[in-house]
What we know:
Layout: H1 4-22, H2 29-42, H3 48-52, H4 55-76, H5 79-90, H6 96-109, H7 117-134, H8 140-150, H9 165-170, H10 176-205
Helix pairs in contact: 1-2, 4-7, 5-7, 6-7, 6-8, 7-8, 8-10
Amino acid sequence: MPSREEKRFAAMVCAALALWILAGSFVHPATVALAAVGLMLATRVLGWQDVTGHRPAWDMLVRLATLVTLADGLSRTGFLAWFAHGVSHQLVGLPPLVAMTGLVALYFVSHYLFATTTAHATAVMPIVLGVGLATPAIPALPFAMLLAFSHGLMGVISPYATGPAPVFHGSGFLPGPLFWRLGAVFGALFLGALLLLGTPAVLLLGR
């Protein structure tokens, strides 16, 4: 039989999940998480040592919070729009295929500035997609498909690139410098495969 603490823990987890799913429009997810942890501490389901003992989790929390704030700041100040429009001017006069692959590569590499693919897609994809559609002769559907497919590949490039990445990094199996080096190598391989193999495929599908 579950103990009293286990029942309390299950009830708090279910309540947090319900609020994340049903109350996201008026309760911030971070507020729900902090309230759940606070209740667990107040009811002695968890001890303070249980919370502070997970050093890798706190390390990644600080890093992700910094990167999410940075990405939001870049978007709010207009830097991303300015950068994207500046790049678009450099594409004027290039063949449409070269301009399209250049934009996809730029979108892929810019993920180094973002924690999670969701934040990246929300902040940058509309801008890059708009620049591509405004560039003459770039096919809209193949271009959008390449941008969407890149999200399944860019999660390897950094310890914060996607949701599972901090877990892999925190396991200690791949030290930080090795994680970055392997991320760059495999990121380049995946991007090359996307551009060399994916571009002809989406062009055929877009006809």
